[in-house]
Transposase
Amino acid sequence: MESGWLTRQASHSLRRHSPSFVVRSSICSRPGRSVAELVRDLEISDQTIYNWRRQELIDTGQVSGVTSADQAELVAARRRIAELETELAVHRRAAELLKEVVPPKDRYAVIKRMAAEGLPVEVCGGCCRYPPPGTTPGVTGHRCHGRCVTSG
């Protein structure tokens, strides 16, 4: 037979408390109330109360450690890094597929489209590296028949 205490402890260990609840419970613990009273009143474990008290000391600078604000910033940064890594993987895969599917002559249209979308286009598909067919020696600039996004 399961005891009521075990069931209550298991349900409390999985619960996340809101920051306002944490602040209210830490305020309740200040006027000299024992941890046992708080455990009974707030229905949370004693270890949770000790953890919150320690975090409050860290946040107020009384003990060294990672503050709640720094922890939140770190979590947000890690989440953003994961998003950017996913985005990069998608773009790398798209580039792979583009190489396989699009014939070389049709890549100029893709480059123009990317430039129109505001993406930085450093190299215009190789059309500016060598004079394209039909250009004559001695002509200043280059002529790539409108395919190059940098033509002027």
User: Anything to note?
Assistant: The two ends are 84 Å apart (CA to CA). The chain has six helices and no strands.
